[in-house]
Amino acid sequence: MKKIFLSILISLAVSTTMVGCGKTSTNTVNNKNKNETKQTESNNEVSNDNHMKFDEMGLAFDIPENWAEKSGISISLVAPGKPGVAYMSGQLQYEFMPTEFNKKILIKIEELKGSTDEEKQQEVFMEYASKIKSFFTIVVLDKNMENEDSQIVKEDKERKEKLFSSYNHVDKVAEKDNLECYILYNDRPEEYEYIYKDMAEISEYTDAENKEFEESIKYIEELKKSIKLSKPMTSEDKMKEKMGENAGVRFETKTVQGNAIDSSIFKENKITMINVWSTTCGPCKAEMPELQELYEQIKSENLDVNIIGLVTDAVDDETIELAKKILEVKGVEFDNIIPDEKIKTEVLTWIQGTPTTIFVDSEGNIIDEPIIGAIGKEKYNQEILDKLNQAE
C-alpha cells in the first residue's frame, strides 16, 4: 500500500502517457497493442507476498526473501504486449532505492495522505527521484512473431536491441512453446543508471548504500531459478472469463457524499455508463474533467443516458473523504458510489484495472465488452451513441 502512495506522487508530479492504472508510465513505449503501467493496480500480481504472476505476459516468479524484506526494491514498469501482435510479449522492470532512504520517503508520503497540495507532492517526488536507480529487467519474447513484417514488430525489435545492449548480462532463463524469457542485469551498483537523472538533482550513493545494492544484486541468481512461463492471457480474456454470460450490476449502497442509492436508478435511463476508478489512479483522475463535460453534454442533448462513478477503494472513512476531495477538485457532479458486498463479489472480482468503463441497460445488464483504460470524451460519446442505437 505504501508503494501505491508513492505511485500517486509520481502520477501527480510527472506528465505521463495515460492509458490506465495503473496503465501509465513515464518510462514506457506507447503502442496501441500495449497496456502499460507504473505500479499496476490490475489483478495480475497475485498469490502471496513473494509470488508474482503476470498473466498478460505468461510470466511468474518468486521474489527472493532478501528482497521481500526491503521496501526499496519494487516494480517500475509493466508493459505487456498483445498476444499474436507483439514480438515483445512483456517487459518488466524493477527499481532500487536504499532501504533507510526509502523509509524516510515513505514517512513523508504517509504525511501527505489525503493532501491535494501538488507543490508538496512534487517536492517529495523530486527527493525520491534523486536516489532511485534502475535494477534488473525481465523480457518475454514471442518467437512466432519474430519474422512478421509489421510496424509493431519492427518497433519491438528496436526496443529489444536497445534494452539488451544496455545491460552486461542478457541471460535466457526460461523457454516454453513459442515464448522465451530473458533477465537483463549488471554486476555492480555503479553500472545501473539513475532513472530520473534528466529531471532531478542526483544524490550519490554512500558506501553503505552501494554495499546494500551490491548484496541485492547477488540474489538475481535465486530469482532466475524461479521464473516460469505459461500461455499469456489478456485482461480482456480474463475479464470475459470471470464475467460469465449473464453479467450484471446490482447494488444497494451510498454515494461518497453519504446519500442512499441502489441499482433501481438504472430504470430511469436506457443506458447508464459506469466509470470504475480508484483514488490511486492517475489516469482516472486526469480524465474526470472530460467525463464531467460529457455528462453535461448528455443532459443538454436530452439523451436517455446517465453517468455514475464507482470508486473501487472507497472502503473506509479516510479513502471516502479522499474520493470526495478528488471529485470536488475535478469538478465532478455526477453520482459516485461506494462498493457494497454485491459489487465487491460480482463486479470487482473481474475488473482488471482502472479506469474501466461499463455500460448497462435499464435492468443493469452489461452491454457489450467493458472498456479498459481512458479513451477520451469523443470516443466515450461515440460508444454511448452506438449503445443507444442498439437499444432502439
Automatic annotation (TrEMBL):
Residues 241-390 form the Thioredoxin domain. This is TlpA family protein disulfide reductase. Its main location: other. Residues 23-32 have a biased composition (Low complexity). InterPro entries: AhpC/TSA, Thioredoxin-like_sf, Thioredoxin_CS, Thioredoxin_domain, Thioredoxin_ResA/DsbE_sf. GO terms for cellular component: cell envelope. Residues 1-19 form the signal peptide. Pfam families: AhpC-TSA (PF00578). It is found in: Cell envelope. It comes from Oceanirhabdus seepicola. The keyword Transmembrane applies. One of its GO terms (molecular function) is oxidoreductase activity. GO terms for biological process: cytochrome complex assembly. Residues 23-49 are annotated as: Disordered. Keywords: Cytochrome c-type biogenesis, Disulfide bond, Redox-active center, Signal, Signal-anchor, Transmembrane.
